[in-house]
Amino acid sequence: MKGFVLVLGCLIAIQNAQGWRNFNRGRSKGGNLGLPAGDAVRGSESEKVTTEWFTQYLDHFNPNDGRTWKQRYYVNDQYTSKRRDVAFLMIGGEGEASIEWMTKGAWINYAKKFNAICFQLEHRYYGKSHPTSDLSTKNLQYLTSQQALADLAFFIDEMNKKHELSKNVKWIAFGGSYPGSLAAWARQKYPHLVYGAMSASGPLLAKVNFSGEKL
């Protein structure tokens, strides 16, 4: 699989310039990347994308707290092979997840090349993934990158079972900006679950009162 990661890395590097232009053009105030660039998707492709809901724990770090909530995710399994040994995960960030990304974008081209099953997991507290009834200060204590990373780990483990993926399945995490950080951290924190990560423009170094920098 070293060759697989090397080829994937080369493909990402080749499209980096175009992807960065799309990133800057499509980025909105909320932090989300907008919609992917590219040609219109054929109906047969989009029809095979499913919207599903995952039972997620509210607090992964308190064994006495068994509260759960429903987290939205998308699945596209039309490119996977019978081996089901490659899985791509697009990590949701500070914006609503978009089903458009499930059939368009560079990562879908990679999925077709490497026969990957594709998932996109919406970040807790964004879009339609509401862990709590309101956004009070008390409830927002569960909006942390640590909880989001644990969401990813639990999700991957359960998807392995639900979709009967190979015991040797290689999960590749994708993310840009904040989700880019999550992708890198997921690979570092859960190497037994995440085989590789594509982290685009991830702000990995924390800064106090960070207001952003113009390129």
From TrEMBL:
GO terms, biological process: proteolysis
Signal peptide as annotated in the record: 1-19
Source superkingdom: Eukaryota
GO molecular function, one term: dipeptidyl-peptidase activity
Gene3D superfamilies: alpha/beta hydrolase
Keyword set, alphabetical order: Glycoprotein, Hydrolase, Protease, Signal
UniProt-listed Pfam families: Peptidase_S28
Family the UniProt entry places it in: Belongs to the peptidase S28 family.
Protein name: Serine protease K12H4.7
Lineage: Eukaryota, Metazoa, Ecdysozoa, Arthropoda, Hexapoda
